């Protein structure tokens, strides 16, 4: 695991508006009012703690930076995991987005660069993001990664940017490319998964040392178990929020000029042009160190 930059640098440099931010705004209808795009570390300290006194804000900020800088606390590891998940997605989007004009993005010009993932690859992506979430929660809470039920329980209590991240995972990596019955599709794809396909996945390669199990078969077992621990909650989330493919597409079209309704292409487009795990993950880790610093001060 390589070291990450200081957390204040990372939060100070989060984008105020880019494709990721537009996408997350479009998903606000799924979890209304949960996500604010908190940018700037001092502003985040104020927003999270409600503190306005300059000296107190500085004390909390300094303690938060100390906590983050201590590798034993697990915050750096968690952020590295969030960054790693997104770095595996195609980077073509970043360059292509650099010359965008205005807030609406022409979609058709991207079609020749897009390759929708096969259902199996999409299923692997979704499951690895879920496992990455458990790994990050394990690191920040100092709970063993083998304690899946405790970790999954923490995920079901999410709010703010953490809930937005899981909502985006369900919508963008689940429902849009795989359909409303994505849970059954993922189960079916993993039941017949060729281990070699998993081993070729760059996210798996980066995280495999952290995933319990001596063999790739054992690790597939753990991934399956992790998905199993969350599938009931994810199914309830979809039903209780009345999420549909068409509803998601309509919301995305308010923020992005997505002229195509082929949802596997939309999924590929979002994959290529957004890094919502890293963006919201940075905000989650910042919130966690700030909340702890405020308690200690």
Structural write-up:
The protein has 297 residues and is mainly alpha-helical. It has one domain (7-296). It contains 16 helices and no strands. Helix 3 crosses helix 4. The protein starts with 6 loop residues before the first helix and ends with a helix. Residues 91-104 have low confidence and may be disordered.
Task: From the structure above, extract its key features.
single chain, about 300 residues, mainly alpha, 16 helices, about 0% strand, globular
SSE ordering: HHHHHHHHHHHHHHHH
Radius of gyration: 19 Å
Percentage of residues in DSSP E strands: under 5%
How far apart, in Å, are the first and last alpha carbons?
30 Å
What structural class do you assign from the helix and strand content? mainly alpha
Shape: globular
Q: Tell me the number of structural domains.
A: 1
Structure described in brief:
With about 300 residues, the chain is an all-alpha fold. The protein has helices at about 5-10, 20-25, 40-50, 55-70, 75-85, 90-95, 120-140, 150-155, 160-180, 180-190, 195-200, 200-205, 215-240, 245-255, 265-275, 275-295. It has one domain (about 5-295).
